[in-house]
Each structure stands twice: as structure tokens, then as C-alpha cells.
Amino acid sequence: MIKKEYVASYIRSLYPTHEGILKELEVYALENHVPIVEREVAQLLKVLLKIYKPKRILEIGTAIGYSAILMASSTEDSCTIETIERRLDMVDLAKENIKKAKYDHRIRIHYGEAESILKDLEDKYDFIFLDAAKGQYLDFFNDCVKLLNIGGIIVSDNVLYKGMVASDKLVVRRKKTIVKRLRQYLKYINELENFETCVIPIGDGVSITYREE
Ligand code: SAH
Ligand code: MG
Question: Containing domain of residue 192, as a range?
């Protein structure tokens, strides 16, 4: 948690707990150490999607399908979601969960490395959720921009990485490279012309980037 713990837990206490499949997946993720989006980030995604009403969503990093299902449940039935995952065990789990949630007609999983799949995709998206290998965000971002409609949004998760990105005191040695890369990423997306970015210290840190032109 990045913000003061008591503020975060107060805010969290305000949010209704999920029911059904989302609740089940939250329990599974906790027990099996799957890094799904934190509750505050889930809530941010829901509100963003309800305001923005995208028709086509792309996600990098499916894991068990939690955020994909969450995004499907926050958008119209006409909105499609494509999500990329490189671990076959995760793809299988996600497929099962998505079917159980009755979103298999709207969510399509691409199995493989994001770096190569992103280069193969051709259609444009209005909303891209970046939630995979943090060391590669900058590369992913540039591939994603090519797939993003003007007026579209890229939301990136875990950009403050346990607070380490904001303070050298917190950086543990083996995470130095990731932290360095995330700092480069945040600097880059904040300085980019024709884009407007904000960084929000909830969950593990989230950034929202809007494409103007
Ligand atoms: N978005 C999910 C959590 C994703 S966890 C949720 O909130 O519910 C990150 C996932 O990204 C992991 O399952 C990991 O296997 C996958 N991943 C990491 N790097 C990747 C890459 N380069 N290409 C494809 N998938 C990747
Ligand atoms: Mg994440």
C-alpha cells in the first residue's frame, strides 16, 4: 500500500464487497498469490469504464481473468475485450473463469508473449489496460499507442511498485532495474506530447494516459 494505511483501509471499507465469481476469484488470488488488481484499482476501473464507455478494450496480463471479468461487468454487452497472457496455466484458468462468468462471447484471450502479439494486432482499441511485466512497460506502451484510437486511454497498473519508484530508501537491490525502468516509463508518459497523464497512489500505483491526437 502506498498511501497511509489507515486512509487506504478506510476507503476500502466504503466499497461494497464483490459477490459471486469476482469474490471467488479474489479468494483464489489471495490463496494462490496471483497479483490481481487491488480493490481500490478495481473501483477506479469500474468508474472509468462507466464514464468512458469504450467499445473495444485491450488488456496486457490476463492472469486468472479477474480484471477482464470486472471490465466486462462494467461495460455494455456490445463492448469486446481482448486480453494477452503468456502462461498457459493462466490462460486455461482464465478461460474457465470467463466461461463461468458468462462472458466468453465478449472476452477473447491471446496466448503468447505480449511483445509479439501486440505487433500482430491490427484493429484499434479505445481503452488499454497494461498490467504485465513491469520492466517492459515502455516498450508495451509504444506498441499500444499504435493500437489506440485518438481520444483513447491507457491505464497502467503497479507503476509505483510498492512505493519503491517514489523513494530510493524503499528500493531493494534485486528490484533496482525494474524501479529504474518504471521511473523512465513514468517520466516518458508524463512528458509525451499530445498525451495527458496522471499518476494515482492507490493500490500499487496506477497511471492514466489520455491520447489527444
Ligand atoms: N490483470 C490481472 C492480473 C495480471 S498479473 C488482474 O488484475 O486480474 C500479470 C500477468 O501478466 C501474469 O499472469 C503474467 O504471466 C502476465 N505477463 C507478464 N508479462 C507478460 C508478457 N510479456 N506477455 C504476456 N503476458 C505477460
Ligand atoms: Mg497489477
Answer: 5-211
